[in-house]
Amino acid sequence: MQQRFGPLATFAAGHHGLFRWSDAVAAGVSEQDLRTLRSEGWCEPVGRGVYRVVAAPPTGHQAILVAVWCRAPGAVASHRAAAFIWGLLGFSRPSADVSVATGRSQPTGGAVRTTLRLLPGHVTVRERIPVTRVARTIFDLAGFEPLERTKLIVDDALSRRLCTQKQLDDVFFALARRGRRGTAAMREILEDLGPGYVAPASELERSARRLFAERGIPMPAFEVHLGDDDLIGRVDCTWREAKLVVELDSQRFHGSRLARERDRLRDNRLVAAGWRVIRVTWEDLRDRPDEVVAQILAALARAR
User: Fold this and answer.
1) d(Cα 251, Cα 208) in Å, to the nearest integer?
2) Residue ranges of E strands in the chain
3) Which 3 state secondary structure label does DSSP give 227?
4) How many CA atoms lie within 13 A of 187 on its CB side?
């Protein structure tokens, strides 16, 4: 391709192989130039005023950006498309979900959703794609996904620090109203979280929480840093008054030799500081839950 088309190629390379007619004009490409590029097979139209560089491989992000650019100005990826972009739990496939503010004209067709409130603070750009932020994405999903699935999405997003509980609260109070999809589900989820909630860091932790609740074990503090000036480290479950720690050993985070050595050293420091440490694996929770419960209850009873 001629050197004078280089700026357009650079732009497309940074936008998933895509450009708009307005981008071509900004790069100094005329209408005749664009016709030439099309006839030579360098690019092809993929939507109204949107073009793809033929050599660019098709990707999920590319498909979402096409959906956004084919809509009205101010359109953003939302709902399942936004969940895919952010890598939320259970959304590994792209979607064409796009939100636009009510009253903006747009072509018909596609998964276009209008909204009365698409606030600036609820929108950002990720991977060069305008997209709703994680907290807003979760509120939108809550209107369409089953409640239990939405709870898992919230826990996963919080544990991975994709959003904060305050951000979820802020979006809820900005959008919630009677009859609005997602309001009832998010109200229940946020009420269940309560102040100071710490999300489970893994499916293993979710299973442990469920077991504790079902068996009447007092709920511990999760993901707590122990130690004062001499910081011992973060532990999974802590009953401070009983000086009891339960560590949840997943193969992913505790399976290597270095991880086991680190765990051993930390356990020794905890025991030296007067703590009792119980280690629990996925197999323990699945195959020996009664034994796990008995050990924890016995340790709590001895501390009284």
Assistant:
1) 16
2) 18-20, 43-47, 50-53, 76-77, 98-101, 112-115, 123-126, 129-132, 221-226, 233-239, 244-249, 276-281
3) coil
4) 12
Tens digit of pLDDT at every position of the chain (304 positions)? 556 789 999 999 999 999 999 999 999 999 999 999 999 999 999 999 999 999 999 999 999 999 999 987 889 999 999 999 999 988 989 998 999 876 544 444 445 666 657 899 999 999 999 999 999 999 999 999 999 899 889 988 988 889 999 999 999 999 988 888 899 999 999 998 887 777 777 778 888 999 999 999 999 998 887 765 445 677 889 999 999 999 998 654 444 566 677 788 888 988 988 999 999 988 899 999 999 999 999 999 988 7
Strand partners, 131: 77, 124
Integer Cα distance of 298 and 172 in angstroms = 42
Q: Is the pTM of this model over 0.85?
A: no
Contacts of 21 (CB under 8 A, 6+ apart): 34, 49, 51
**Can you tell me the distance from the alpha carbon of 129 to that of 65, in angstroms, rounded to the nearest whole number?**
6
The two three-digit tokens of residue 55, written as one number? 């050599």
Q: Which helix (H) or strand (E) element contains residue 171?
A: helix 165-175
